[in-house]
């Protein structure tokens, strides 16, 4: 069957994951013998190796070629494309009949069936054989009981029956394990195929679809919904197998008990509709549950990406409350589902009893002469026991179908959602221009308001073009239109050649720096070094611990903002494209670096001098260097032409230049041919708020997920039991003990009943005994039902308590972790704990515990019953139990570690996916979609390798355990034959029927013990953050007065700080004091420690020595929230959360609407917000993507104005807005915060020059601290910086 897949996948050759030859351990399965394949003996070397040492990824066997993502994904994508085309044809036919448009979706189920049908048929054949063999055992047992009743002369037939029983159960074991292996691996293939398709779709989503499906929802589709399809596939054969087994069992029961069996069938028929009703209710609950999970992951994803803002504003409790509210809704649904599970448990346990009670009762009523012999009783009971499994499976498979239907709907919605239309832009243009717009209008969605209107632009090849304008005028949108990222409403857009794109917010991959720059291109050493030099990266490489081999963290956390932009620019330059779209890359670097970048990269003498370059900029002094200037206003081209043309034609450009002082303006107009450092760019963002320079040693890379080794400590299980609640633990134990005792009592009673029937002579006496026996049998069943219901209720209550407690602890621990943790650990790892690990705790772990307890009690009861019947059985049990434990001991060591490796290999899938979604515009711009699809296949394949090894290890165990169980059956049967006339046939029936059950019970017992240990890894991972270093407490016993700080006096006394104990000091002997209401500018060159200083003020970074005193209170003696809640900050990164504009301004809901409008007016946003249809209730998309970066920055300013305190820290606060808006903002800050102490971390120097005093830092020390006038007179470092920036003494300095 696999040959079909190989043939289909021939065009896509199987590729090994990079690694040394020793790391590529090809699976020996293909070359193994038939016996070795059937018993999985070829896998024994991994089991033995795992027992000797903790397994590592390199120790595992590689996948068979047909099981790899490299083969599966292309085959499935081909079938999906065919299904999409078929669906289009169907819709055309329907539309022609109904004369109206139909919007039916292509069927994911059909595509999956067409891809995997041959493997699924193969799996079904194994299942048929296993089911047929399962019914052979009771028939052989029947012959054995008959043999024991009559004891013919030819005693050898008894041995024949015993041997036949052993052969049948052993064959059943081998075939069932083959079925399990192919079934589970096929389900994993289906999940792999779906994940590949989701990833590919995400790369091409239109803006409308991106709004509809948030990052959290798409991740949930990959993790939860793809998993549901996998679960359905694993249970798929039960849809026909369960009815088939029920039908065969009923047919065989008819032979034993005649028409009476119809009573049992009637019970089944009665129960199935009730199960269907329960399943319908479960479907509704699961749908609601999925929505809540989406909400939680979406919010969590945003919280983790914006964790710095939460910490600076002390908003953690507010967002924690939001997560817990969603979680409580989840748990309410889980509780309802748990109570419905009570019915399922009742069905599983009591239906076989009710069926047997109804059948036996009607059997007696049909003919008063009917007698229950041992043959009838135990053959019937064995068949009833076989009935238990399909009856247990039916609710499971119905639930899986229900879940899969919901998931299929969600996946089909996503996979059928709008993609970016290739016709938005013509890329095969061969005209005279590099880019041409003709009467073009664009919107972010087809039905939306046009964002760009009536564009008529012709850009010649090799031209240097500037796009300028105010915040929100449509500058970045012009670049998006060129990239084809916007929906074209009218007109024509044409583009010639390949594109390289540098986004306004630099996107950096979690890989080494060299790979970030090469971006999939071949290394050309000479050109590469030239690019590094031109992009001013060589000094940075000297400081990085491993040069260009240094691993860059997720979202570039271990490099500065300026470095991120330069790496992003280097990536574009190295690509060798024809057209370069540069979205304000120079605003993130300091003056001299900006000059170098323009001269050596962008300008007329730079590397790109012969390329078409379109530069969005707020730096107006660059305009004289431009071949063409496009001035944007309200989404239209306000003016267009060369610098001189615009100056002569209109005052528009001159109006823009009014933001400069008269002297600066005059100087800028004179220097039309030379770019100089007076660009008044903001100083380089080396420390992105909390980052020191690299030479200060914050030289960390992303931590790989720690994979624990050795056994899971019992303390982890105890932690779960404590969260479960000891009351519920003991009640659970009591109910399960009672349940098992009653079940044993039922079978012993039937045995005694059958034995009694042989010795009753008088009909009337038998009639009386029969009536009493039936009553007692019914009473025992009723007791069992009560125990089952009580047990299920207790389990639901306890598991809910455990889920609530462990989730709350995890959330609390994560929010209390210091900021550096989030910078060095991929967010995928953290989200994985809230999704996959919490799912196991919520839904799986308590089930495994319950099953293990039940199996333990069942095994003990079974052994006691058989030993009671056949005392010699103890001689066979002891060595077999010893072997059981030996096999388990070998297996658990390997299985546990393979499961851990599988858990760790899931995080990179989520991390890579999240990273892709963040940088999707860049990936599309460079046309690297196929390369990223290939990378996704690689990370999925790594997870598949671990999963494959895990599946095979489980099958290895099952074959061996079931073989030992088969020996127990054989031993019990052999003892029954050897016992001769000394044993009653009823006892033979009882012991063999129990022996047949012990195989399954013992297998389940060992498997569930292993499942508990391997799944306890999830509890271990959830509790992992408990023992990590946390931030100081949010609230302490010593609290500052409510009016503190009332003056705003900040004093640093001999203050020292370092990022890690093994690194040097980032700040050294910092001592200074501000006055109340003083305006302090903090300046310094790259890596001076400016942002480190502000981090220390907020205690993002704790002291190594000295202290900070604010208005007489040492800040280290109060809680973090008492401190941070009394400080104000406008951060460098404008972070917004999805939700309303009102929620983003005021998440704690403390201010009135009038106050919100007031601050919006002060931030020059009132007009914009009033133009929105829902005004304050306007929905902000994830990460604020439906606003420009400048608008986001202004909203952050509005937040600060609402939260007015005596101390304000400005950290590069106006980096993303134009000069005119910056000027207005600076005026607002001066006016509204006139009675506050303001600490301004150096951004555009013209806004620092009018400070009361300026603090100059260098290498973590204070070099100068004086008024600007005095510092200029001293001609020190500050004077040198001003000179570089071209600011003179008359630029507004204070004396």
Automatic annotation (TrEMBL):
Source organism, top-level taxon: Eukaryota
Pfam families: ABC_membrane, ABC_tran
Alphabetized PROSITE patterns for the sequence: ABC_TM1F, ABC_TRANSPORTER_1, ABC_TRANSPORTER_2
Cellular compartments annotated: Membrane
Alphabetized UniProt keyword annotations: ATP-binding, Membrane, Nucleotide-binding, Transmembrane, Transmembrane helix, Transport
Transmembrane spans: 115-136, 156-176, 260-279, 337-365, 774-795, 859-887, 963-980
Residue stretches making up the ABC transporter domain: 435-659, 1050-1284
Start and end residues of each ABC transmembrane type-1 domain: 121-403, 730-1004
InterPro entries the record matches: AAA+_ATPase (IPR003593), ABC1_TM_dom (IPR011527), ABC1_TM_sf (IPR036640), ABC_transporter-like_ATP-bd (IPR003439), ABC_transporter-like_CS (IPR017871), ABC_transporter_C-like (IPR050173), P-loop_NTPase (IPR027417)
Keyword check for Endoplasmic reticulum: no
PANTHER family documented for this protein: ATP-BINDING CASSETTE SUB-FAMILY C (PTHR24223), MULTIDRUG RESISTANCE-ASSOCIATED PROTEIN 1-LIKE (PTHR24223:SF166)
Listed name of the protein: Multidrug resistance-associated protein 1-like isoform X1
């Amino acid at each position: 069957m696999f040959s079909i897949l190989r043939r289909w996948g021939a065009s896509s050759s199987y590729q090994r994951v990079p690694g040394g030859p020793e790391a590529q351990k090809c699976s020996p399965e293909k070359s193994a013998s038939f016996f070795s394949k059937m018993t999985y003996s070829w896998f024994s070397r991994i089991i033995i190796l795992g027992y000797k040492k903790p397994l590592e990824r390199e120790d595992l066997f590689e996948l068979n070629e047909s099981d790899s993502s490299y083969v599966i994904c292309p085959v499935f994508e081909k079938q999906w494309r065919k299904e999409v085309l078929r669906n289009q044809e169907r819709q055309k036919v329907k539309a022609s009949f109904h004369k109206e448009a139909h919007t039916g979706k292509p069927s994911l189920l059909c595509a999956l069936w067409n891809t995997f049908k041959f493997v699924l048929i193969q799996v079904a054949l194994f299942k048929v054989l296993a089911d047929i063999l399962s019914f052979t055992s009771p028939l052989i047992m029947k012959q054995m009981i008959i043999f024991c009743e009559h004891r013919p002369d030819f005693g050898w037939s008894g041995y024949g029956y015993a041997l036949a029983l052993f052969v049948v159960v052993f064959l059943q074991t081998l075939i069932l394990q083959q079925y399990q292996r192919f079934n589970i691996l096929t389900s994993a293939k289906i999940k792999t195929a779906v994940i590949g398709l989701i990833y590919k779709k995400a790369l091409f989503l239109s803006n409308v679809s991106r709004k509809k499906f948030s990052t959290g929802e798409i991740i949930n589709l990959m993790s939860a919904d793809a998993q549901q399809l996998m679960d359905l596939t694993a249970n798929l054969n039960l849809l026909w197998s369960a009815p088939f087994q029920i039908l065969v069992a009923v047919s065989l029961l008819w032979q034993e008990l005649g028409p009476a069996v119809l009573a049992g069938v009637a019970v089944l028929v009665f129960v199935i509709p009730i199960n269907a009703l329960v399943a319908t209710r479960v479907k509704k609950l699961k749908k609601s549950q999925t929505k809540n999970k989406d909400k939680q992951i979406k919010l969590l994803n945003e919280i983790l990406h914006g964790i710095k803002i939460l910490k600076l504003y002390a908003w953690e409790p507010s967002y924690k409350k939001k997560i817990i509210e969603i979680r409580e809704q989840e748990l309410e649904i889980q509780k309802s589902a748990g109570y419905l599970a009570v019915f399922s448990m009742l069905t599983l346990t009591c239906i076989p009893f009710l069926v047997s009670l109804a059948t036996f009762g009607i059997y007696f009523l049909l003919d008063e002469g009917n007698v229950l012999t041992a043959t009838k009783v135990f053959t019937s009971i064995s068949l009833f026991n076989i009935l238990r499994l399909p009856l247990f499976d039916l609710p499971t498979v119905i639930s899986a179908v229900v879940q899969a239907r919901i998931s299929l709907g969600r996946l089909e919605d996503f996979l059928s959602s709008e993609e970016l239309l290739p016709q938005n832009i013509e890329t095969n243009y061969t005209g005279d221009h590099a880019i041409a717009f003709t009467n073009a209008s664009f919107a972010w969605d087809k039905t939306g308001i046009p964002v760009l209107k009536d564009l008529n632009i012709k850009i010649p090849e090799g031209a240097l073009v500037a796009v300028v304008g105010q915040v929100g005028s449509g500058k970045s949108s012009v670049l998006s239109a060129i990239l084809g990222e916007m929906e074209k409403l009218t007109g024509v857009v044409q583009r010639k050649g390949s594109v390289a794109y540098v986004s306004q917010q630099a996107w950096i991959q979690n890989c080494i720096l060299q790979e970030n720059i090469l971006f999939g291109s071949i290394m050309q050493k000479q050109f590469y070094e030239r690019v590094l030099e031109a992009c001013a990266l060589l000094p940075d490489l000297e400081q990085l611990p491993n040069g260009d081999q240094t691993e860059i963290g997720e979202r570039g956390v271990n490099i500065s903002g300026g470095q991120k932009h330069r790496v992003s620019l280097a990536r574009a330059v190295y690509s060798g494209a024809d057209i370069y779209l540069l979205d304000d890359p120079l605003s993130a670097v300091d003056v001299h670096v900006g000059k170098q970048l323009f001269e050596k990269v962008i300008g007329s003498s730079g590397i790109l001098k012969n390329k078409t370059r379109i530069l969005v900029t707020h730096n107006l002094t660059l305009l004289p260097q431009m071949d063409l200037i496009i001035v944007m206003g309200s989404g239209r081209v306000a003016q267009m032409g060369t610098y001189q043309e615009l100056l002569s034609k209109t005052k528009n450009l001159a109006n823009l230049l009014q933001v400069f002082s008269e002297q600066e303006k005059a100087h800028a107009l004179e220097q039309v041919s030379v770019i100089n450092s007076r660009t008044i760019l903001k100083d380089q963002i080396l420390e992105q708020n909390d980052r020191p320079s690299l030479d200060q040693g914050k030289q960390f890379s992303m931590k790989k997920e720690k994979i624990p080794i050795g056994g899971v400590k019992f303390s982890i299980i105890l932690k779960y039991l404590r969260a479960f609640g000891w009351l519920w633990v003991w009640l659970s134990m009591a109910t399960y003990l009672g349940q098992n005792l009653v079940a044993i009592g039922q079978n012993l009673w039937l045995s005694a009943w059958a034995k009694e029937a042989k010795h009753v002579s008088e009909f009337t006496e038998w009639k009386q005994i029969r009536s009493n026996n039936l009553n007692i049998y019914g009473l025992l069943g009723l007791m069992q039902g009560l125990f089952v219901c009580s047990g299920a209720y207790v389990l639901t209550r306890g598991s809910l308590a455990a889920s609530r407690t462990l989730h709350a602890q995890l959330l609390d621990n994560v929010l209390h972790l210091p900021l550096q943790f989030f910078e060095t650990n991929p967010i995928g790892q953290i989200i994985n704990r809230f999704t996959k690990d919490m799912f196991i705790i919520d839904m799986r772990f308590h089930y495994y515990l319950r099953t293990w307890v039940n199996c333990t009690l069942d095994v003990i009861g079974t052994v006691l019953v058989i030993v009671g019947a056949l005392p010699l059985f103890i001689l066979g049990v002891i060595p077999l139990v010893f072997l059981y434990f030996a096999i388990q001991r070998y297996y658990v060591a390997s299985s546990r570690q393979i499961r851990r490796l599988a858990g760790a290999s899931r995080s990179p899938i989520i991390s890579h996916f999240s990273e892709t979604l963040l940088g999707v515009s860049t990936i599309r711009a460079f046309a690297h979609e196929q390369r990223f699809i290939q990378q996704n296949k690689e990370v999925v394949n790594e997870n598949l390798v671990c999963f494959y090894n895990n599946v095979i290890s489980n099958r290895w165990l099952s074959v061996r355990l079931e073989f030992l169980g088969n020996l127990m059956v054989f031993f019990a049967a052999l003892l029954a034959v050897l016992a001769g006339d000394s044993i009653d046939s009823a006892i033979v029936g009882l012991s063999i029927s129990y022996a047949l059950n012990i195989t399954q019970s013992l297998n389940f017992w060992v498997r569930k013990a292993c499942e508990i240990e391997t799944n306890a890894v999830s509890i271990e991972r959830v509790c992992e953050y408990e023992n990590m270093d946390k931030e100081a407490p949010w609230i302490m016993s010593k609290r500052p007065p409510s009016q503190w700080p009332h003056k705003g006096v900040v004093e640093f006394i001999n203050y020292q700080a370092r990022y890690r104990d093994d690194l040097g000091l980032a700040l050294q002997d910092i001592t200074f004091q501000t006055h109340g209401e003083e305006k302090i500018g903090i300046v310094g060159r790259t890596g001076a420690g400016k942002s480190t200083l502000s981090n220390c003020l907020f205690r993002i970074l704790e002291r190594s020595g000295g202290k900070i005193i604010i208005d007489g209170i040492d800040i280290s003696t109060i809680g973090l929230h008492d401190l941070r809640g009394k400080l104000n900050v406008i951060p460098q990164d404008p972070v917004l959360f999805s939700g309303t504009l009102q929620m983003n301004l005021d998440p704690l809901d403390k201010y009135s609407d009038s106050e919100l409008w007031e601050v919006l007016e002060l931030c020059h946003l009132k007009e914009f917000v009033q133009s929105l249809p829902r005004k304050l209730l306007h929905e902000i998309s994830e990460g604020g993507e439906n606003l420009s970066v400048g608008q986001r920055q202004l909203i952050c300013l509005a937040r600060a104005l609402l939260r007015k305190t005596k101390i304000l820290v400005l950290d590069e606060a106006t980096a993303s807005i134009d000069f005119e808006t910056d000027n207005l903002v600076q005026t607002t800050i001066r006016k509204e915060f006139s009675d506050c102490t303001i600490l301004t971390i150096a951004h555009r120097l013209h806004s620092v020059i009018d400070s009361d005093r300026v603090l100059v830092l260098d290498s973590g020390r204070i070099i100068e601290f004086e008024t600007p006038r005095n510092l200029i007179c001293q001609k020190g470092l500050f004077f040198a910086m001003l000179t570089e920036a071209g600011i003179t003494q008359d630029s507004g300095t204070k004396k």
